[in-house]
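user: Here is a favour to ask of a fellow structure person. I have my own habits and do not want them to colour yours. Could you put it straight underneath, so I can go through it closely?

assistant:
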Amino acid sequence: MLWLILGLAAALILCCWASVIGGVVAWGDDLYGQISNRGRNTVEINEAARDGHLEFRVTGVECGVPRVGDQIVNEVATGQFCLVQVTVRNRGDRPLTVDDSLQRAYGSGDRQFALDQTAAMIANAAQPLFLAPINPGNQVDMILVYDIPTDARLLRLHLRATADSRGVLVKL
């Protein structure tokens, strides 16, 4: 009788593992992304979401850009630039800054892309915003620039007010 119960328990455990493996094979990165992003503030383009006292709104994305800047000061993409237009509003009661090094982009296979800081400074040359304080109630428009492979595509952004905050996920 004990062997029968142990055998049924082992069969049940094997079935559970087979279900998990089947789910990963069938849904792969999408399933992992949904599980790992559960509980985070998730929005789409043109929807506002708050992280701490900063409110983020992605208003546009343009990929396939080979170069940013003008004839004199410019940066050429290694792959392709993706320009992400973001409006950031300070909803707090003291000046806050946006740390561009915290803003990440993700492609398929959960590939992570860091901001190209040089290209972003050039793209925002008319209005240098990074690490400049945003006063309470004010908002700024900025361009985040990612240099990604030519065969890649951005699927989502993870925007954060501080290094220890949960952040905002934006589906692209």
User: Anything to note?
Assistant: The two ends are 56 Å apart (CA to CA). The chain has a mean pLDDT of 84. Residues 116 and 155 are 17 Å apart (CA to CA). The beta strands are 41-44, 48-51, 54-69, 74-90, 104-106, 112-114, 139-148, 156-159, 168-171.
